Amino acid sequence: MCLVCIAFASWVLKSTNPDSGDTWKAVLLANISALSAIRYLRRRDATGEKPLRQTPSV
């Protein structure tokens, strides 16, 4: 789900016309989506769930 939010935020920013007066709405929507994804990942880490990707220890 968090990847969907990040992808959506990226798509919104790429598809926005910078000359229009409604650019701030797209930026706000993208930021909310990105913050939601970050909060989800932090909450998942705090609960002790298995991380999305495990790195091998050296």
From TrEMBL:
One of its GO terms (biological process) is response to muscle activity. Keywords: Signal. This is Uncharacterized protein. Residues 1-18 form the signal peptide. InterPro entries: Perm1. GO terms for cellular component: cytoplasm; nucleus.
